[in-house]
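Homework help thread (please don't just give me the answer)

Our assignment gives two proteins as sequence + structure token strings and asks us to describe the second one. The first is just a warm-up. Here they are:
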Amino acid sequence: MNAKPQPEQTMHEEQIRAALDQHWAASDANDFETEHRIYHEDAVLDYPQSGERTSGRCNIQNQRASQPSKKRFAIQRIIGSGDLWITEFILTYDDKPSYTVSIMEFRDDKVARETQYFADPFEAPAWRKQWVQQIT
């Protein structure tokens, strides 16, 4: 039997979704102050592919503000519930796209931990063409 969400859960999720929308819009606009309001002071950001961890909202904001490349964010979808939310987006650095997944873990109404994975686009192999459809 599926339990109906409680009204306070729905309201909490609506608030998180609104905060995520604001966060990603600010990211795309290079509004570093607004972009980082979503994080707890002691938030942790992991980039597993480079083996880096950034601890603390201030450090997260400073390392992102120091990024020398021109960047743009194109959100593909945001899914989540409760305190776990995933955003799929295309992060373009100096016109080079990187397919990105952000996994955010919330504590109360702020992000306590985020993990981001980055993938470069690649040419689809011809051998599987008969079973797949091209997507954009």
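The one we have to describe:
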Amino acid sequence: MSIALQKFSVDGDAGQLEGVVHVPDEIPYAIAVVAHPLPTMGGNMESKVAVILAKTFADLGCVTFRFNFRGVGASEGEYTGGDGEEQDMISVARYAQEQFGDELPLILSGFSFGGYVAARAAQTLKPQHLILAGPAVGRFAMPAVSPDTLVIHGEHDDVVPLADAFEWARPQKLAITVLPAADHYFHGRLTQLRDIVKKHFVGVAL
């Protein structure tokens, strides 16, 4: 299966949002939308973790959208700390559903701040699957998530301590997949991150 990359833009409530869609050359099994890390720390849709997540979903046969939040790159508007960015992700997901059909299963995913945004957007969009890598618990008011959410966290995360992730997950009885010795950005561990996501979908109907 080959994957084509196409640029897209969509109207958000703060103006145009830019993004890239990974389009498989076969009929897609699902729609995936991936959110990037914190804009004020240089996060954008080219973040290595956001890109590896997008490529992984595309390899699984999903038409996959990654995009720049408002105020990042050519996306219009200004950073809001979560409220506006949640609306950005909802806008992109609804655009994706308009383009490819809302009968396809929806996957939301995000890294760090993007994980926080994806968890918030999931409350509105009700995706079939939620995949979070190093979600920014403790730094932002992370909502509770579905019990089948896949959460992947580095043991030595120096930005979002693993203890904070457990503190958030414990009351929900939520499992966390811990990558031993991995840091926040999964340096040198992106292949493992990819493989964990792929294994999550083995035997699971997309």
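TA reply:
I won't write it for you, but here's a hint about the kind of observation we're looking for: The chain has a mean pLDDT of 96.
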